[in-house]
Amino acid sequence: MTKPITGMAAMMLVEDGRLNLDDPLSKYIPAFKTMTVATSPDTSLATRPATTPITIRMLLTHTAGLGYSINVKGPLLKEYEQRGVLPMSVNAQMETQMAKARPTSLEDFANRAATLPLVAEPGTKWSYSIGLDVMGRVIEVASGMSFERFLQTRMFAPLKMSSTFFMVPQDQVKRLATNYAFVGGNRTPLDPAATSVFAERPSFPYGGAGLVMSARDYDRFLHMLQDGGTLDGVRVMKPETVALGMSNLMPKGVSFGGIGTGTGAATVGNAMGFGAGGSVYLADVPGGASKGTYGWGGAAGTFAWVDPVRHVRSTVMVNYFPGEKWPLRKEVVGALVADVARSGSAGGVRR
Question: Minimal CB count within 10 Å: which of 108, 177, 238, 331?
Answer without folding.
Answer: 331
